[in-house]
Design brief:
Number of strands: 0
Largest sheet: none
Order of helices and strands: HH
Oligomer: single chain
Shape: rod-shaped
Radius of gyration: 30 Å
Strand content: under 5%
Amino acid sequence: EARWDGAVQRLERVESESKLLRLDWDGTIEELTQLAGSVEKGRRRAAASLSAAERKERDQAPDEAPQSPQEIRNQIRRGMTRMGGR
């Protein structure tokens, strides 16, 4: 009977520790979720700043009239790439 009591006590301790671990993991997962949100927010800000800088650069660049149909096509492709169309 002493063996059973010892086994029951160990089992209760394991259950108690597993509950504590679950609580720790829940907290860790919540912190990681918040961190991921912050990282995504920063990424969006950086992308918006880069887009604004690219627009400003494009607006300040002198407009040159393309000479050939191939140059026209290349200019259109560059514009679409900048807009994310490609």
